[in-house]
Amino acid sequence: MSEFIFDIETTGLDPYTDKIVGIGLLNIENKDILKIVSKDERKVILEFYRIIDSDDTLIGFNIRRFDIPHLKVRSIINDVPSLILNEVRIIDLVDILNGIFPNDVKQKYLRLDDWCRILNIRGDFENTGIKVAEWLDKGDIDSISKHLEDDLVKTYQLLLRLKEHFKELNQLGP
Predict the structure, then answer these.
(1) How far apart are CA 124 and CA 55, in angstroms?
(2) Which residues touch 8 (CB under 8 Å, ≥6 apart)?
(3) Distance CA 72, CA 61 (A)
(4) Which residue spans within the chain are E strands per DSSP?
(5) DSSP at 85
(6) Cα–Cα distance between 8 and 14 in angstroms, integer?
(7) Which of 23, 42, 123, 167 is most buried, taking the most CB atoms under 10 A from its CB?
(8) Is residue 97 part of a domain?
(9) Burial (Cβ within 10 Å: 0-12, 13-18, ≥19) of residue 36
């Protein structure tokens, strides 16, 4: 049973047309980072499913509303079985942060970079996911990989900060 910070990089926001070009995992126990980045979407997805187990935990920022559904749709399109996504434990930091406010209180949606700026978590705030398609067109896989790693590290740092405030996160990692 492993706990991973999880993130994907895509060529856009539409899971029906925009491809996954990167999937990253940061192992909370040993801090190892694994990045699967390629123009070959099917290869990226297959490699991800080879790595995770049904008793693993995936932790991320907005993964319940974006990353997991996008991965599920792209798995179907690429004819890659994705049943394991129904078995892994999912912890979305957005859900936890939204729990601060009562349901009837309208709140502003903050992105990962917004929370990181507020909490003085360092990272690259200039190169965002919007540039992934451009980098891919240029064959700049290295920039996609660097961006993916930066998002994984920022999400991990955010998790560490939130563990001090939310008991449902205390059982995670060392």
Answers:
(1) 32
(2) 20, 22, 23, 24, 67, 70, 71
(3) 17
(4) 3-10, 20-27, 33-37, 57-60, 89-92
(5) G
(6) 13
(7) 23
(8) no
(9) buried
Half-sphere exposure of 157 (CA within 13 A, CB side): 17
Number of domains composing the chain: 1
Is 74 contained in some domain?
Answer: yes
159 HSE (CA, 13 A, CB side): 27
Q: Distance from CA of residue 90 to its chain's centroid?
A: 11
Helix (H) or strand (E) holding 154: helix 141-163
Which CATH number fits the domain that encloses residue 32? 3.30.420.10
pTM exceeds 0.85 for this model: yes
Per residue in 117-145, pLDDT tens?
Answer: 999 998 888 877 789 999 999 999 999 99
* Residue found by looking up tokens 């991973």 in the block: 4
| Range of the structural domain that residue 150 is part of | 3-92+104-167
- Both tokens of 158, joined, read 């955010």
